[in-house]
Amino acid sequence: MWEWRYADGRVCSTNFQFSETGTIEGFYSANESTWSLSDDGLKIFRSDKTLMWNFQVLEKQNGKFFFRSFAKHEDFKDQCFYLTQISKKQTEQDDSEKEETVRLVIWDLDDTFWEGTLSEGEVKLRLDTLHMIRELNNRGIVNAICSKNTYKDTREMLERLGVWDDFVFVH
């Protein structure tokens, strides 16, 4: 069973299932009809067989997967969606080994967290990175920064962008 939701936490469905035959069950829409899993991630196809979603793996934790994709359809342009595995088939649940989980992500800033170099002028926040940091925080994963930028300049920019409180810092 999977949960389909917006990046802001609003849930679209908690009945989303992937059948062994490649069809999607529990959520019926012409936009989400069939699926395939590959090294590139989870692809979801429309009923006319065109690609609708290309979810990429964010994390695999305790045998469960967490995927993220951005909407391609104009009605939802640039909205971020997540698929989170909320339960497994009963036969699989007790057989999986406990996996180590991610507890901390350390971010570089220039040309990674934001576009541009802070010491050379203006930078632009990347929305996909912001969504990812907020999702990690929601799951209890700590975000920190390792940067060549000065603490003062970094703090000023992160506060201006409204993301200072999304990180922890060692003083």
UniProtKB/TrEMBL annotation:
Annotated protein name in UniProt: HAD-IIIC family phosphatase
Lineage: Bacteria, Pseudomonadati, Pseudomonadota, Alphaproteobacteria, Acetobacterales
